[in-house]
Amino acid sequence: MSMAPDPGKRLRRIVIVGGGTAGWMTAATFGRFLHDGVTKVTLVESDEIGTVGVGESTIPQIRLFNRMLGLDENDFVRKTQATFKLAIEFIDWRRIGHAYYHPFGPYGLDMDGVSFHAYWLRLKAMGEAADLADYSVQSLASHKSRFMRPIEQRNSPLSSIAYAFQFDAGLYARYLRSFAEARGVGRIEGKITGVDLNGTTGFVESITLADGQRLEGDLFIDCSGFRGLLIEQQLKAGYEDWSHWLPCNRALAVPCESGGSRKPVTRATARPAGWQWRIPLQHRCGNGYVYSSDHISDDEAARTLLANLDGKPLAEPRLLKFTTGRRKKFWDKNVVAIGLSSGFMEPLESQSIHLIQVSISNLMALFPDRTFPQVEIDRYNALMTFEFEKVRDFLVLHYNATERNDSPFWDYCRTMSVPDYLANKIEIFEAHGRIFRDNLELFNDTSWFAVMIGQGLEARGHDPMADVMDAGELRQRMEHIRTTIGNAVETMPEHWDFIARNCKADPVAMAGA
Amino acid sequence: MSGSDRIKSVVIVGGGTAGWMTAAALSRALDRNTVRISLIESDEIGRVGVGEATIPPICTFNAMLGIDENDFLSKVQGSYKLAIEFVDWTRLGHTYLHPFGDFGVDIEGVKFHQFWRKLRGLGDASSIEEYCVPAMAARLGRMARPVPDPRTPLSSMRHAFHFDAALYARYLRAYAEARGVVRHEGRIADVALDGESGFVRSIAMADGRTIDGEFFVDCSGFRGLVIEQKLKAGFEDWSRWLPCDRAVATQCEAGGELTPFTRATAREAGWQWRIPLQHRIGTGYVFCSTFISDEEARATLLANLDGPPLVEPWFLSFTGGRRSKFWIRNCVAIGLAGGFMEPLESTSIHLIQAGITRLLALFPDRGFDPVEIDEYNRLMTSQYERIRDFLVLHYKATERNDTPFWERNRTMEVPETLQRKIDLFRRAGRMFRYEDELFADANWLAVFIGQNVMPETYDPLVDAIDIEAVRDKLQRMKTLIRRTVETLPTHRQFLQTHCAAAPPSAPRTSAYRA
Question: Do strands A40-45 and A219-222 pair parallel, antiparallel, or not at all (unpaired)?
Answer without folding.
Answer: unpaired
